[in-house]
What we know:
The protein is mainly alpha-helical. It has helices spanning about 20-45, 60-70, 85-90, 110, 115-125; strands at about 55-60, 95-100. It has a domain at about 20-100. The protein is about 40% helix and about 5% strand.
Amino acid sequence: MCGGVPISWCSKKESIVALSSCEAEYITASMSACQDVWLNTLMQEIKVKNSREVKLFVDNKSAINLAKHLVAHGRSKHIETRFHFLRDQVNKGKLILEYCKTELQVAKIFTKALKGEKFRDLRDVLGVISLSHSN
Length: 135
Protein backbone atom coordinates (compact mmCIF):
# COMPACT_ATOMS: atom_id res chain seq x y z
CA MET A 1 0.00 0.00 0.00
CA CYS A 2 1.21 3.49 -0.77
CA GLY A 3 -0.64 6.57 0.39
CA GLY A 4 -3.33 4.34 1.89
CA VAL A 5 -4.16 2.60 -1.38
CA PRO A 6 -3.02 -0.77 -2.76
CA ILE A 7 -0.45 -0.49 -5.54
CA SER A 8 0.88 -4.03 -5.84
CA TRP A 9 -0.26 -7.54 -5.08
CA CYS A 10 0.99 -10.92 -6.23
CA SER A 11 -0.08 -14.52 -5.93
CA LYS A 12 1.61 -17.50 -7.51
CA LYS A 13 2.17 -21.18 -7.07
CA GLU A 14 5.44 -21.70 -5.25
CA SER A 15 8.21 -23.38 -7.19
CA ILE A 16 9.69 -25.00 -4.07
CA VAL A 17 8.32 -27.10 -1.24
CA ALA A 18 8.71 -25.56 2.21
CA LEU A 19 9.36 -27.92 5.10
CA SER A 20 7.51 -25.78 7.66
CA SER A 21 5.06 -22.90 7.88
CA CYS A 22 7.94 -20.75 9.16
CA GLU A 23 9.96 -21.51 6.04
CA ALA A 24 6.98 -20.86 3.76
CA GLU A 25 6.29 -17.48 5.37
CA TYR A 26 10.00 -16.59 5.36
CA ILE A 27 10.29 -17.36 1.65
CA THR A 28 7.16 -15.36 0.87
CA ALA A 29 8.43 -12.42 2.93
CA SER A 30 11.77 -12.62 1.09
CA MET A 31 9.99 -12.46 -2.26
CA SER A 32 8.03 -9.46 -0.94
CA ALA A 33 11.32 -7.78 0.00
CA CYS A 34 12.46 -8.22 -3.61
CA GLN A 35 9.22 -6.59 -4.79
CA ASP A 36 9.89 -3.72 -2.38
CA VAL A 37 13.32 -3.09 -3.86
CA TRP A 38 11.85 -3.13 -7.37
CA LEU A 39 9.01 -0.75 -6.42
CA ASN A 40 11.43 1.64 -4.68
CA THR A 41 13.61 1.69 -7.79
CA LEU A 42 10.57 2.37 -9.96
CA MET A 43 9.43 5.18 -7.66
CA GLN A 44 12.90 6.76 -7.78
CA GLU A 45 12.87 6.61 -11.58
CA ILE A 46 9.56 8.48 -11.73
CA LYS A 47 10.83 10.96 -9.09
CA VAL A 48 8.54 9.88 -6.24
CA LYS A 49 10.35 10.12 -2.92
CA ASN A 50 9.78 7.48 -0.27
CA SER A 51 10.82 8.92 3.07
CA ARG A 52 9.62 6.04 5.25
CA GLU A 53 10.71 2.48 5.78
CA VAL A 54 8.47 -0.18 4.31
CA LYS A 55 6.46 -2.28 6.75
CA LEU A 56 5.93 -5.87 5.79
CA PHE A 57 3.15 -7.56 7.76
CA VAL A 58 3.91 -11.21 8.47
CA ASP A 59 1.59 -13.59 10.31
CA ASN A 60 4.30 -15.97 11.52
CA LYS A 61 6.43 -14.91 14.50
CA SER A 62 9.05 -17.58 13.79
CA ALA A 63 9.63 -16.17 10.29
CA ILE A 64 10.03 -12.68 11.77
CA ASN A 65 12.54 -13.97 14.35
CA LEU A 66 14.45 -15.82 11.66
CA ALA A 67 14.77 -12.62 9.63
CA LYS A 68 15.79 -10.50 12.63
CA HIS A 69 18.13 -12.80 14.56
CA LEU A 70 21.06 -14.77 13.25
CA VAL A 71 20.84 -17.16 16.22
CA ALA A 72 17.85 -18.84 14.59
CA HIS A 73 20.04 -19.75 11.63
CA GLY A 74 20.98 -23.18 13.00
CA ARG A 75 17.44 -24.43 12.52
CA SER A 76 17.20 -22.99 9.03
CA LYS A 77 20.27 -24.34 7.25
CA HIS A 78 18.06 -25.99 4.64
CA ILE A 79 16.58 -22.65 3.47
CA GLU A 80 18.23 -21.58 0.25
CA THR A 81 20.69 -18.69 0.53
CA ARG A 82 18.76 -16.54 -1.96
CA PHE A 83 15.88 -16.25 0.50
CA HIS A 84 18.13 -14.64 3.13
CA PHE A 85 17.80 -11.42 1.12
CA LEU A 86 15.00 -10.68 3.58
CA ARG A 87 17.41 -10.75 6.54
CA ASP A 88 19.78 -8.46 4.65
CA GLN A 89 17.01 -5.89 4.02
CA VAL A 90 15.90 -6.01 7.67
CA ASN A 91 19.49 -5.60 8.93
CA LYS A 92 20.04 -2.61 6.62
CA GLY A 93 16.91 -0.97 8.05
CA LYS A 94 15.21 -0.86 4.67
CA LEU A 95 12.39 -3.15 5.74
CA ILE A 96 10.50 -3.42 9.01
CA LEU A 97 8.77 -6.70 9.77
CA GLU A 98 5.64 -6.41 11.84
CA TYR A 99 3.48 -9.22 13.16
CA CYS A 100 -0.06 -9.25 11.84
CA LYS A 101 -2.67 -11.77 12.96
CA THR A 102 -3.75 -14.06 10.15
CA GLU A 103 -7.34 -12.86 10.32
CA LEU A 104 -6.17 -9.26 9.72
CA GLN A 105 -4.16 -10.03 6.59
CA VAL A 106 -5.75 -7.92 3.84
CA ALA A 107 -4.51 -10.25 1.09
CA LYS A 108 -6.89 -12.93 2.36
CA ILE A 109 -9.60 -11.24 0.29
CA PHE A 110 -7.73 -12.43 -2.81
CA THR A 111 -6.82 -15.92 -1.67
CA LYS A 112 -9.54 -17.28 0.59
CA ALA A 113 -13.31 -17.76 0.58
CA LEU A 114 -14.61 -15.33 3.20
CA LYS A 115 -17.92 -14.75 4.93
CA GLY A 116 -19.79 -11.62 3.83
CA GLU A 117 -18.91 -9.47 6.85
CA LYS A 118 -15.19 -10.30 6.72
CA PHE A 119 -15.16 -9.71 2.95
CA ARG A 120 -16.76 -6.27 3.41
CA ASP A 121 -14.32 -5.37 6.21
CA LEU A 122 -11.26 -6.24 4.11
CA ARG A 123 -12.78 -4.56 1.05
CA ASP A 124 -13.18 -1.38 3.11
CA VAL A 125 -9.57 -1.58 4.32
CA LEU A 126 -8.49 -1.70 0.66
CA GLY A 127 -10.61 1.34 -0.09
CA VAL A 128 -12.72 -0.40 -2.73
CA ILE A 129 -15.95 1.51 -3.36
CA SER A 130 -18.95 1.08 -5.61
CA LEU A 131 -19.05 3.29 -8.68
CA SER A 132 -22.66 2.59 -9.55
CA HIS A 133 -24.14 4.88 -12.19
CA SER A 134 -27.54 6.48 -11.70
CA ASN A 135 -29.57 7.08 -14.86
